């Protein structure tokens, strides 16, 4: 009588360790490489004081975020306001200069970010589909000037690559342990 092994009793070869290591290393490369590249090559946002208007030249389509720089130094002046207090009646308008069309601002997640001596909170996002010149105006009914910045969204790309890479690393680690358990 021949002994037939059940599929559960099969011992995977050592080759599957190599597959799991490739998944782990590939996931780390995906999590670190593009994320660092996105952060290092991002364009600095354009800062301006509100109430006011700023002309912006957009050369690359994408999602652009408006930030409230609630703690910063800009042109030799310090700005410091509580992070969650924008005055009632604050009005934001982005107009494409060549067509005169106003673009709609989407609410953002209220992301907080600190870079050097600047602390910011996202206010909203604009989907800019074509390179063009835009006019961004912010009217502020309060007498206190506020500092804003406007720039291409890089945080979403960094988070996407980072979490995607870490997910692949987790799959590799799980795969490693499955092979380890089946081989023991």
Could you describe the 3D structure shown?
With 184 residues, the chain is α+β, with helices and mostly antiparallel strands. The chain folds into two domains: 9-37 and 161-183; 44-153, Sandwich (Jelly Rolls). The chain is 30% helix and 38% strand. The protein has two helices and eleven strands. It has helices at 15-40, 155-183, and strands at 46-50, 52-58, 62-74, 77-80, 91-96, 102-103, 106-107, 112-115, 118-128, 132-139, 146-152. Strands 1, 3, 4, 7, 8, 9 and 11 form a seven-stranded antiparallel sheet that branches. Strand 8 (112-115) and strand 9 (118-128) form a beta hairpin. The mean pLDDT is 84.
Write the layout of secondary structure elements.
Layout (H helix, E strand, L loop, with lengths): L14 H26 L5 E5 L1 E7 L3 E13 L2 E4 L10 E6 L5 E2 L2 E2 L4 E4 L2 E11 L3 E8 L6 E7 L2 H29 L1
Antiparallel strand pairs: 1-11, 2-10, 3-4, 3-9, 3-11, 5-6, 5-10, 7-9, 8-9
